Amino acid sequence: MSEARIIDGKAVAESVRDEISARSAALLQSSGIRPGLAVVLVGEDPASQVYVRNKDRTAEACGFHSVKHTLAADTPETDVLALVEQLNNDPAIHGILVQLPLPRHIDESKVLRLIKPEKDVDGFHPVNVGLLTAGERSAALVPCTPAGSLVLLKRTLGQDLSGMNAVVIGRSNIVGKPMASLLLQESCTVTIAHSRTRDLPAVVRTADIVVAAVGRPEMVRGDWIKPGATVIDVGINRLPAPELGEGKSRLVGDVAFKEAVQHAGAITPVPGGVGPMTIAMLMVNTLTAARRQLNLPEEAPLF
Ligand SMILES: NC(=O)C1=CN([C@@H]2O[C@H](COP(=O)(O)OP(=O)(O)OC[C@H]3O[C@@H](n4cnc5c(N)ncnc54)[C@H](OP(=O)(O)O)[C@@H]3O)[C@@H](O)[C@H]2O)C=CC1
Ligand SMILES: Nc1nc(=O)c2c([nH]1)NC[C@@H]1CN(c3ccc(C(=O)N[C@@H](CCC(=O)O)C(=O)O)cc3)C=[N+]21
């Protein structure tokens, strides 16, 4: 069998970003307003810092107003809530992202519920979750990683995914559940697998579309993949790589890429697959949020 097509998430993310830059410049021309994005980071987790820096840089490249609030890991919950409230009331801020996970002494759901739904560019507020699961995707802000994964699927398979068997591995609120909602809305036949699933390899073998969001390096093996299936690898796992030098690490996904590429029809790499799309979709959501807060008409959807 021939090797799978490799889905270039970096290139697709760049094209999305170019479109957002153009739309953002047009908004600035017509109304004098820049979309404003605030990212809140509590604690010093080095991996989170990399993502937050990437988000910051991309927001600036899109012509957005971008602010970053870094709080100490031991910041009291009340201070985090007060900052969210301040950002809720700041007219220059249209999107708020609180980087997860939060330190254990902070109640995550309390923080996420306080964010105004119209500023919730992560799509984690119950209002946005509800709109998505009720099938009103266009009224919601949709979580960035699933949205970016769907863009890659449609670029690979075309606009019509109806009737396809989709297996989502993982049922988190950030990735697995919203991914399943989106695929259901595309009329896929959706199976959600998780740590209690019996005979995961057999379940995955039924899939025309596999989305792996597990957080276990290279867990999904090549011979689980139905020949020709499309594989979206959401996993970001940092492994030590002494062969690259002392103290070095490398990123791997949740799929054993070298094996799966022999079976799949198309597959996303890690890095360079879903990760860059997540950041691009955050920019899409921030612009959408800004236009809604300014009572401007919706623009053509990007997916
Ligand atoms: N590319 C990107 O932009 C992003 C990447 N990620 C990455 O995606 C991965 C998943 O993230 P996230 O959803 O937050 O992770 P969570 O840890 O919240 O969820 C993991 C899910 O995988 C399931 N699971 C764990 N072990 C197994 C197993 N052996 N067999 C089947 N299912 C299993 C769990 O099941 P159960 O519910 O039963 O415990 C759970 O539902 C991580 O690698 C993360 O770094 C995350 C966000 C964005
Ligand atoms: N509130 C919140 N929203 C999130 O969206 C969120 C979060 N918290 N917590 C952490 C996860 C993880 N995440 C990633 C984003 C971009 C890359 C990314 O850009 N990856 C690149 C390069 C990564 C690198 O080289 O380190 C790639 O895969 O090619 C990865 C992971 C967003 N998350």
Q: Can you tell me the number of structural domains?
A: 2
Query: How far is it from the N-terminal to the C-terminal residue, by CA?
Result: 31 Å
Q: What name is given to the CATH topology of the largest domain?
A: Rossmann fold
User: Which regions contain 5 or more consecutive residues with pLDDT less than 50?
Assistant: none
Strand content: 15-25%
The Rg value, from CA coordinates, equals: 19 Å
Please state the structural category.
alpha/beta
Mean pLDDT: 96
Name of the CATH first level of the largest domain? Alpha Beta
Given the structure, what is the number of helices? 10
Largest sheet report = 6 strands, parallel
In this entry the ligands are:
NADPH dihydro-nicotinamide-adenine-dinucleotide phosphate, 5,10-Methenyltetrahydrofolate
Shape: globular
User: Which bin fits the share of residues in helices?
Assistant: 25-40%
Strand order of the main beta sheet, please?
1-11-8-7-5-6
